[in-house]
Amino acid sequence: MAIVTGFSARALLLAGATLMPAVAMAQTAGGDAQAAPTAQTDDLQDIVVTGQTTRDRPLITSSADITYATREDIDRRAPRSTADMLELVPGIFVEATAGEASNNYSVRGLQGGGQRFVQLEEDGMPILYGGGGADFFFQQDLTIDRLEAVKGGSSGVLTVNGAGATINFISKRPNFNEFEGAVRLTGMNYGLKRADFYYSAPLAENLAFNFGGYVQSSPGVRRNPFDYAGYRIKGSLEYRLPGGGSIRLSGRRGDIETAYYASAPYRFENGEPASIPGFDIQRDNIGGDAFSSIRVPVSTYVDASGYRPFRYRDGIRSLYNQARLDVDVPVSDTLDLFARARYIDYTYDFNGLFPGSGTGNAGLASAVNYLTPGANSPINDLLTRGQAAFPTAARFGIRNIRTGEVIGSNQTGALNALNGNGFLQRTTLNHDRIDGRDLGINAGATWAFEAGSIKNSLTVGGMYYNVKRRQNQSATASVVNDVRNNSDVYDIVALNGANGVIGSLTDSGLVSYGDWGNGIRERNDEAVSLYANDEIALGDHLRIDGGIRWEQDSAVALDGRNAAAADPSRRIVAANGGFEQLVPVGQGGVLTTVGATFAGQYDVRRRKQDKIAWTVGANYLITPNLSIYGRYADGFQTNNVDPITTIKLYEAGVRYQYARIFSGSVTVFRTNFDDQNYNFANPSNPSQQQNINADLRTKGVEIDVMVRPVTFFSVDFQGVFQDPKLVNLQIDGANQAGFEGNRPERTPAQLWTVTPSFSLPNGLGEVYGRYKFIGKIFADAGNGVALPSYGVTSVGVNLNLTPQLQLSLNAENIFDVVGLTEGNPRQGQTQAITDGYFYARGIVGPTYGGSLTFRF
């Protein structure tokens, strides 16, 4: 059988309970567990897939919604981030606009802006127990062989916190037969420089190893004066047991810096989003030299110095170490035992800029308005303090911290000419550090038997996770800066009649401290799961399978307390209706306290919760090339001490293949998300968190079709057409009748991709294109701001220069389309555009580059 290659492989459907952690490393007779599935693309009957409960189950008999992507599919996508790879999975909406990490993805109508119900796995185990944040600690490289995904179905039973979907990245296994290796050099027009490597060889008759990873440096896809560097290395040592099975010890380490992008300013032009003069929204970046390092006052309980630095120069630094052990032992022809465990310790130090946070779209205002006291000034509170501190001041002005230039409020011509647009804005400095550890264990057994025309496979097992993560998001503050690439930060100054500076209202441009509360918290989870999954074939046509998992989570939440009393020894005084610490001696400006002040103590909440997930499905094979299936799944997401949220998925589908000409599936689905609960910043007082709770109802159809009319041309179409609605929405416990029936925020009703591919003669390679369409989304649950639909066109070519040397070239967004994936999420649930200007996060303009791969 030929190895599946080409984009059509993604349309093929894995069988039954694939991605099952219990058997994801099941051993073949030759010991090459999870080797690339072999298939003939003209007959789904011949496709055999490892990593499932039932051995050798053809894909057409699957009763789950499965996607498969080969190494070639991944390379063709040319992903700039982990989130980019998820676009290979129909039904996943990806907001891949933050950079290489911290992107958002959602499934089947769940509102965007998070990573809930979608579990990212590596070799059948979650990268992180909770799922969210996994893309900080996983990046694809040449050690990854393929991607497998299951939506709904067995996902909520066979993994934790993945009831909506499980995306499993399968690693290459060591080569026991011969030496193999590869080196890949990649470069992009925006400055990415990357080198990948892979090496594997046998050490003895039953012992082999592999080793790989990458090193890179990149300023990110938007203009940036800084370059971010990093590496990832990964290796494994595998021993084949004499009686079959294997023991594999593996580890990986990463230390990676990446750029991060949040919202940026836009304007509406003829009803379409466009750039503000002086700021190219497709390429520019607010961040730069002025944000390289800023000392922000903070409680001395957080840092004894009284300062916590914000360093845009460091971007996001993700550092992690992981050790893992996998054991697979076949006891007999019908019984297999497995055990696997992994431990990861990690840190991410996040330094991200959030323009428009707190003040929202109204914070994007003219410099004249900024400096004129009154309701139209986004910093009126600061100006009021300035009037009290400098009663003799004739006016206020701005002083460029980089150049020292001073412009008074009476110099309206100079202010209106500032950067070609006359705007200032408030930008929040978010320094968020998390230190964590995550232990996961999964062990069990698979028993298969036959009795006449009945075949059955039963897997039972247990999982244990012990997770701890400490968060320091203190000293979140905001500055005033202009609206241009590599923007400048300004001090707000008090001026005399001659525009001479008599005092400064700010220090290093900081106009507020402690914007998002004291920011100190810790979360711990100890979770135990017991599960079983059974698949039964009744004759040649009918297959029924079902699974169940019970999980108990013992959770602890510690939240840092604000100071509750004056403390002269710590310089904590009564201020702003509470108690806050005075800024360090020598700190300039008129702000006298650090804002919300952590007092060294915690409020502790404990909660033990348990829940059952279960699923049942059936597949009926009408002909060898035509089948129908149905599935119900009831799953959940743990949320530490917060209530468990649930998801119910109903789906039914048909699969058909006609020789090599046509292969495809159509799935209709309904998804019920209950008690979706999350916090957002109060737009009027960002240090206060508001709570939203809502049910979501989604119905839709998913299409995945490949057509190959001639041998040298194929076209692949995948799409989701859905109708998601909000039900029973509450904000801070109060019903919001006006939200009933609205579209969930950041959720498209249409999402589809067309990928044509031409094979070049004599095996020279292929030329391909891709058109991705994203339907209209809303920036808020109130559906006040609609972000228009858009389509992105990409092209590429893969050339086989020699049997060992391949050249790949690709270009994204070749027509420079403006596309928005979110509005300003920190403005609240009822957003509005102010004077034609607004904040949003969008895709970048054209990017292009390529890679050269040498295999040996």
Automatic annotation (TrEMBL):
It is a multi-pass membrane protein. It is found in: Cell outer membrane. Residues 410-814 form the TonB-dependent receptor-like beta-barrel domain. SUPFAM superfamilies: Porins (SSF56935). Gene3D superfamilies: TonB-dependent receptor, beta-barrel domain, TonB-dependent receptor, plug domain. One of its GO terms (molecular function) is siderophore uptake transmembrane transporter activity. Keywords: Cell outer membrane, Ion transport, Iron, Iron transport, Membrane, Receptor, Signal, TonB box, Transmembrane, Transmembrane beta strand, Transport. It holds the Pfam family Plug. Residues 61-163 form the TonB-dependent receptor plug domain. It comes from the Bacteria. GO terms for cellular component: cell outer membrane. Residues 1-26 form the signal peptide. InterPro entries: Beta-barrel_TonB (IPR000531), Beta-barrel_TonB_sf (IPR036942), Plug_dom (IPR012910), Plug_dom_sf (IPR037066), TonB-dep_rcpt-like (IPR039426). Belongs to the TonB-dependent receptor family. This is TonB-dependent receptor. It comes from Sphingomonas ginsenosidimutans.
